[in-house]
Amino acid sequence: MDNRSSVAPSGLRLCSDEQERVFMTTYRITVVPGDGIGHEVMAEARKVLGAVENAFPGLSFACQEFPAGAKCCQETGTDLPEATLAACKAADAILFGAAGWPGLTLPDGTDIRPQIKLRKLLDLYAGVRPIKRYAGLRPVLAGDPAIDYVILRENTEGLFASEGGGARVGEHVAVDSLVITRPGTERIVRWAFRLAGRRPGARADGVRRVTCVDKANVFQSMAFFRRVFDEVARELPGIQAEHAHIDAMTLFMVTRPLRYDVLVTENLFGDILSDLGAGTVGGLGVAPSGDIGDTYGLFQPSHGTAPDIAGKRIANPIAQILSARMMLEWLGETKDDPQCAQAAQAIERAVEKTLADRTYHTADLGGSAKTAAVGDAVVKAVRRGD
Ligand code: ATP
Fold first, then answer.
1. 14-42: burial string, b at 16+ Cβ within 10 Å, e else
2. Angle between helices 318-334 and 338-355 (to 10 degrees)
3. Whose CA is nearest to atom 25 of ligand 1?
4. Pairing relation of β-strands 12-16 and 21-34?
5. Which of 51, 269, 353, 372 is most exposed, with the fewest beta carbons within 10 Å of its own?
6. Atom number, ligand 1, closest to the C-alpha of residue 363
């Protein structure tokens, strides 16, 4: 029974049934499916949000879809229409699928990637990439360690600062610049320490830890990143601060992943490490992310548009569903809404339950489940309150 009624200002509505009367909060969600499997996995995440609305009578999501991406660029001449950008700014949160398509590129040969534009335009400086091992998945690393850490990628500068720019001199020279600024580094490092302070539980060795991943032994820019990290770390005692070089880090993520809690790093390093991290816990199909700033939050799977499987209805929707879960967690924190936090936990439990049953493993996880079957299983688990 739909028991919602009487819309009130500022997204609050009165909702009632025989037993109780509670205020309903409606969140405006701008949904951008993008290209390729973005559409397929987004459909499942929206089903799960629908199940959350039924399970939590005080929550509702006014989702509205907007175009962006390579196909949009082909059809309209822009990969990020003004109306989409305006809707992203007006929403309480943005749920993004994936964008880009082989063969549809900008004149310089680079991909069409509105998500990177959005990071800059909305100042989404914190790329939050949880790396979590879900029970039930085929072990990737020997000993099947219970991996659970977060890669925090600086999202607006670093080597990506050159994106859309850089320099090309004739046919023989091309240059991109790596940009590290003090304010950009300070804010991402502070974020890392805040995150380490509130993450549930500590490492196997009982220590809360932030690891600065850099290449300070070679590059001025990276030595500067590390120096600013150390300065901020000194102001924030109680959480262990340590360093690792990027090359060694790729080894440690495979050989001793249980040591890690929060890793903070430059933009391109974070991009690469997050795919490696995803590989250690089952692959891109189970790796969500959040691109978060001080005003806006955009949530999308770590994967791309997967052109090789797009349209086959076999894409794994878990990363998109977990991105919606991160969106609810963020709304819970920023809007101080415990119902959102509870809903995020409900999705997490439902995903755990779903992945524990191999019937619901898609091809990337070694199974044969279809995209929609996985989404339906998560919906059922949310409904049951598993
Ligand atoms: P981008 O640079 O846009 O992140 P990419 O080049 O890293 O994209 P993806 O599109 O992420 O590439 O695909 C990499 C591989 O992972 C492909 O083989 C793809 O099929 C697979 N893959 C990605 N996402 C999923 C998913 N949700 N389910 C199943 N397989 C996936």
1. ebeeeeeebebbbbebbbbbbbbbbbbbb
2. 160
3. 285
4. antiparallel
5. 372
6. 29
183-223 confidence digits (pLDDT tens): 999 999 999 999 999 887 667 777 899 999 999 999 999 99
CA distance linking residue 386 with residue 382, whole number of Å: 6
3-state secondary structure 98-142: ECCECCEECCCCCECCHHHHHHHHCCCCEEEEEEECCCCCCCCCC
Residues 269-272: contacts with CB under 8 Å, at least 24 apart: 269/153, 269/158, 269/213, 269/214, 269/215, 270/127, 270/129, 270/151, 270/152, 270/153, 270/154, 270/155, 270/158, 271/153, 271/160
| 280, 147 Cβ separation under 8 angstroms | yes
Question: 1 by DSSP, 3-state: which?
Answer: coil
Residues in the chain: 386
Q: 82 CB under 6 A from ligand 1? A: no
For residues 184 and 156, the answer to whether their CB atoms sit within 8 Å is yes
Please tell me the distance between residue 257's alpha carbon and the centre of ligand 1 in angstroms.
Answer: 23
In this structure, the residue with its CA closest to atom 31 of ligand 1 is 285
CB-ligand 1 contact for 69 (6 Å cutoff): no
Report CA torsion sign: 273, 325, 70, 167.
negative
List CB contacts of 365: < 8 A, sequence separation 6 or more: 137, 138, 282, 283, 285, 286, 316, 355
Distances in Å between the Cα of 130 and the Cα atoms of 69, 76, 340 are 25, 35, 19
Scan for tokens 């409904």, then name that residue.
383
Residues 328-342: tens digit of each pLDDT: 999 999 999 999 999
Other CB atoms within 10 Å distance of the CB of residue 3: 13
354 touches ligand 1 (CB under 6 Å): no
Site to substitute for ligand 1 among 364, 370, 371, 378, most atoms within 8 A of C-beta: 364
- What is residue 201's predicted lDDT score, i.e. its pLDDT? 65
